Amino acid sequence: MPRPAIAIALPRDEQLPGANALAEAGFEPLIIEQPDQLDEALAARSDVALAILDGETDFDLSLEYYALLHENGKNVPALMVVSTRSLERFIGAAAHSATDDEYFTRPYSAESLRWRVEAMLIRQMAVDDGSGPVLQGEALTADDWLRRGTFTAVFNPKGGVGKTTIALNLAASLVAMGRRVLLVDADTITGHIASSLGLEHVRTLVDAVADAEGDPFAAAEPLDELIAAHPSGLRVLVLSSSPLRADLLDPAKVAEALALARRSHDDVVVDVHPDYGPLNRAIFDRADRILVPVTPDVPALRAAVQFRDVATDLGFRDKLAMVVNRANSGVSVADMERTVGMPALASIRSAGMLMVKAANEGRTVIDLFPRERISDDFRALAETVSGRPRKESKPGIRGLFAWREPARAT
Ligand SMILES: Nc1ncnc2c1ncn2[C@@H]1O[C@H](COP(=O)(O)OP(=O)(O)OP(=O)(O)O)[C@@H](O)[C@H]1O
Ligand SMILES: [Mg+2]
């Protein structure tokens, strides 16, 4: 089975030896010569497991590459090749960001670079799955990386600001882009995603846990059997349909299972109840990103500020991004960004009765009213969230992936 792709943005004289050593180990090396190429590679494929960057020749260029690896909720780890001299400078510049990055000092041999990559991938997988035993000596294959999706929670502690609306229509827009999406109704108190989508008699995670037949979390893909298919292609999981039984769920196990679902989905979008209970805390902890819908009114803005402060205390503030909902009210997005202290990823206008009509038909707005302007807003949000701008991929990009180690004589 093919192993994942490794992007290599090193000076010319180091590119080929590194690429050869990685190709020999079965990886697919992608030679990157400028930021555009890395940008395109990351947009076009999801099996780029890490990028090897040069940390000293052109510092600004390195930071540009680095930013691409981490923009829009992506978290592709970087292996930064530096001299001992520039190590400190780089660590200083990247200190605020992801922790999966590592440094590798010159001079080095191509073989040692390869082994460092192997070690990083093993650590990454261990972190990604939250446990070592998943690995159990298996070789890591592209399969492990191919569907390394993103776990996005949608939260604001204030009720009625549009969490469910945004989760639902974001998920539907991502499906319309051809992505495999799991939408999770983790609002165990007032969740209504299944009914809004016209899905009936959905078996919930609580049902499975309450069932004496066995522990659903023991399965390799714990959620798989519980996922309901909506005709649009959206995959839907409901945690509980009864607030009284929600306590049967172990928050850490649920959050873990949701994180694991990234293996088989491009996007895992999770709608939650407005509270700071243990289930939500566990979800915040495991999510890659938390979208915070905010309507332009003082209570919603206050609630968002409170959440920002809570997130700061709990150490996940950098996961937060605001989505301005009912945006066409005259309050400027810049003012809201200043007030809340979070960047706005997107704005969704107010759509009046369209929401109600869609819900009554068991469809999403973007599905039932694709030409309405609010559907454009949701699609723009989906494009930002997925990191894929709505532009045609340049034909030249294919050339990037054409590089292969020449067949070795046997
Ligand atoms: N942009 C919008 N245009 C029109 N109606 C909207 C918009 N966003 C949300 N609504 C409506 O506002 C109401 C509340 O939205 P929603 O249920 O998504 O909020 P919520 O934050 O999930 O609420 P809760 O905290 O109770 O779960 C719904 O009736 C929804 O249809
Ligand atoms: Mg809701």
Question: And the CATH topology of the largest domain?
Answer: Rossmann fold
Mean pLDDT reading: 83
Supply Rg: 22 Å
Strand tally is 13
SSE arrangement, N to C: EHEHEHEHEHHEHEHHEEHEHEHEHEHHHH
Question: How many distinct domains?
Answer: 2
Tell me, what is the CATH class of the largest domain?
A: Alpha Beta
The outline comes out as globular
Please identify, by name, the CATH architecture of the largest domain. 3-Layer(aba) Sandwich
Ligand catalogue: adenosine-5'-triphosphate, magnesium ion
* Strand order within the widest beta sheet: 8-9-7-10-6-11-12-13
What characterizes the major β-sheet? 8 strands, mixed
Count of helical segments?
A: 17
Distance between the termini: 20 Å
**Full CATH superfamily name of the largest domain:** P-loop containing nucleotide triphosphate hydrolases
The helix/strand class is alpha/beta
**Uncertain regions: pLDDT < 50 for 5+ in a row?**
126-147, 390-410
The share of residues in extended strands comes to: 15-25%
Question: Helical proportion?
Answer: 40-55%
